[in-house]
Specification:
alpha+beta; seven-stranded antiparallel sheet; four-stranded antiparallel sheet; 13 helices; binds guanosine-5'-diphosphate; binds manganese (II) ion
């Protein structure tokens, strides 16, 4: 789940990190009223993408009238493909220096990574390429955490002057918020040193692990879930994990692992899957609903049914698919591979009731499905 700047800043603020005072506004009138209450402001487009500054989505306004005009100009813009429906009207900061700070999940070190650079305001990729000496990184052992001593060690040798102390404190705070909220990314660019010596986040990008939303209930309403397609909504209502994809080979397998293996083999054979669908665990009896869902994707040209039974019985799964097949009566070809518990019975049922011979090898069933979808 992604949090726009204003939402990310709310999360920071609730966690005790000071952020500039601001208001979310949906019209020029609201922006004007906000500026009247706040004073000189910066008006910032709220869209789930960066580079707003370069696109004209960030404007300084000295008076309420200017704030209204800026909001008028920014609302209705399109930035990175997103129409701007709201602006954040925030107190202007007297910026002395701009830094970069982030905490993120780092696949390479399989740990959180704290990043800091004295070069703020630009893309971090650009900083890494042009000013690598300004960029510091530290992998964190989550059992030990990231404390003031770690922050000092990370910043050692950087020319920060008096700012070193508040910057170190901010990094510790950012790591705490990242951990507390199961974040995948918390990025502050720029992290500003103000004329009065305070260090404050001027921008905020927050991504929280979707799998942790069940326990992040206090902030979940602030973020934006990726919108689900109509079919994905249907899957969710059925309690089935369904993801709609662009390909044309429908995949029906039991368990997330076998499903992903099947998708990999589809790709390996030169095809593209039209869905991910998990019907493992307790959902293995939902063959009918599952098949209906897979076949409802308008792109699907052939179907692979790949079952591997252990505790879940393949004859029960096959029974559901056969019943669904007879009800839905689809016109696309289907290719079965069935192994494990209940296999003999399942194969017999498919053969006798559908007149289709299951394949011995999964790879052959999948290659045939890819071929048929061409
Ligand atoms: P982004 O371009 O989408 O990353 O948007 P940012 O929130 O990072 O804003 C872009 C730039 O606007 C920042 O790098 C700052 O230089 C500037 N900016 C943002 N807020 C303020 C502010 O309160 N005062 C001043 N003077 N500049 C600001
Ligand atoms: Mn930024």
């Amino acid at each position: 789940m992604n949090f726009e700047e204003h939402a990310g800043k709310s999360v920071l603020s609730r966690a005790g990190v000071s952020v500039p005072q601001g208001r979310l506004c949906a019209s020029a009138q609201e922006a004007e009223a906000a500026a009247r209450a706040i004073g000189p402001v910066v008006v910032k487009a709220q869209v789930p993408t960066g580079k707003r500054g370069k696109s004209g989505g960030v404007k300084l306004a000295a008076t309420p009238e200017e704030a209204a005009a800026s909001a008028q100009a920014i609302l209705g813009m399109e930035i990175g493909g997103f129409p701007v429906a709201r602006v954040l009207v925030e107190e202007q900061a007297a910026i002395a220096r701009e830094f970069y700070a982030a905490v993120l999940n780092d696949p390479a070190s399989r740990s959180p990574l704290v990043l800091f650079s004295t070069e703020g305001g630009m893309d971090i990729e650009e900083v890494a390429a042009t000013r690598p000496e300004s960029l510091r990184r530290m992998a964190v052992d989550i059992r030990k955490g990231f404390g003031p001593a770690d922050a000092r060690r990370l910043l050692l040798g950087l020319d920060l002057g008096e700012a070193a102390v508040p910057v170190a404190a901010m990094l510790v705070d950012l790591y705490r918020v990242y951990r507390q909220h199961d974040a995948e990314l918390l990025e502050i660019n720029p992290l500003a040193l103000l004329a009065d010596g305070r260090v404050v986040p001027l921008d905020c990008k927050l991504t929280v692990d979707d799998a942790a939303l069940y326990r992040q209930t206090d902030i979940a309403e602030l973020g934006a879930r990726e919108p689900l397609s109509a079919l994905e909504e249907r899957g969710r209502a059925l309690d089935l994990k369904y993801i709609e994809l662009e390909g044309n080979v429908g995949v029906l397998a039991n368990g997330a692992g076998l499903t992903m293996t099947t998708m990999d083999v589809v790709s390996h054979a030169g095809g593209r899957p039209s869905n991910f669908l998990e019907i493992g665990g307790e959902a293995y009896t939902k063959g009918t609903e599952a098949l209906d869902l897979v076949l409802s994707n308008p792109g699907v040209k052939s179907l692979v049914v790949n079952f591997c039974g252990a505790f879940a019985r393949t004859d029960v799964m096959a029974g559901g698919v056969i019943q669904a097949w007879k009800t839905l009566n689809p016109t696309i070809p289907v290719f079965f591979s069935i192994h494990g518990t209940g296999e003999d019975e399942a194969v017999r049922m498919v053969r006798e009731e559908l007149g289709i011979e299951p394949y011995d090898r999964m790879e052959d069933a999948i290659s045939a499905a890819v071929e048929a979808a061409r």
